[in-house]
Design brief:
Family: Belongs to the glycosyltransferase 77 family.
GO molecular function, one term: glycosyltransferase activity
Structural class: alpha/beta
Pfam family, one: Nucleotid_trans
Oligomer: single chain
Radius of gyration: 24 Å
Largest sheet: 7 strands, mixed
InterPro entries: Nucl-diP-sugar_transferase (IPR005069), Nucleotide-diphossugar_trans (IPR029044), UDP-D-xylose:L-fucose_XylT (IPR052636)
Protein name: Nucleotide-diphospho-sugar transferase domain-containing protein
Helix content: 25-40%
Number of strands: 11
Length: 367
Amino acid sequence: MACLNYLITTDDPENSTNTNTNMALSQNQNADGMDPWYCSCYNPQENTTQTIDPNKNNGKPEPPVPNIDTGESIPLVVPESFKKPEQALVDKINNNLNDGRVLIVAASNYGMRDHVYNWIESLKRTNEGDKFLMFCLDQQMYDHMVAAGYEKNAATIPESWFHDEVEAGFEEYYSKKYRIITHAKTLIVQQLLYLDVTVLFSDVDIVWLRPRMREFIHTFLQIRGQTHVAYQQEGTDQRVVNSGFYMMKPTDITKRLLAETIYLGDTNTDYTQQGAMNAALDHVDMNLRSTHVVLLDVLHFPNGYVFFDNQWPQKHGVEPYMVHANYLVGNDKKSKLQDYGYWYLDDKWLESIDAKIGLKEEQEQEK
């Protein structure tokens, strides 16, 4: 079945935006009973015949198309652009940009507010406490940050960015709500890339330990132009990335990577955000000499398995730039950080903000 590539432009008068989508359209519209959008060029088993054009190559057969090991098995739609968010959000983004248009980003719902403020305290201790942006996944989290004095660093998320509604509770790993929350984080980063922002994304169960970490990681993206993203590792075997800590440049490569990550998350409810991102990385060149991906070493950027379970940085006298309290669930995260002296939050201060919010809500109900 032969295929033509068409550029389809859709005008949306409501949003005043153009969405350009590359789609493969069959010349034989349902002539063989197949889906009219089906394209056999993605199935090598159906692309085995060669045609001879007497006007090309002296009548010799065309050379076979080489296999691409990292190619997707299905067509992938990568957005060309998105509607620009409201100016208030754009202003908050611009006001929190660091050198090189690097934005420190996190996202959380109300149920993780204690980790949010512990994360912020760690930023302050590493001289990064002024410019960062917390995307609040629910209104309660945003109101709490405003009450705590962090309005310039807090943002609500446009409804158009969400694919599923996020609730405010603390969620266990692998639960349905946890999957929705982590999936929303990818949607946020995707939108920021289209605003020409280099994103340093950090989960809030991470503690920053050393100054100039942002500059250190950004250097990897600067000294080698082919490097588009630097990931923390999951585990130790350099095969799985952790989607809770990475720096990503706004390039066609990274936009395509996130487009597939989101597609996999939308169409397969068994995937966590991290599982979807690692699956999408299967279609990225990971050859050591040509890859666009850098893996941060596990001693300076340890995950919970490396730092808490095996204590390898401690055993080798390495001072990490950060510690990720993953591999821990629920209250074990806070307990383990407290054990190591990495819980910086004054819990009484948090209780006072909670009480302030509660009093305000009671007064509004009485009106």
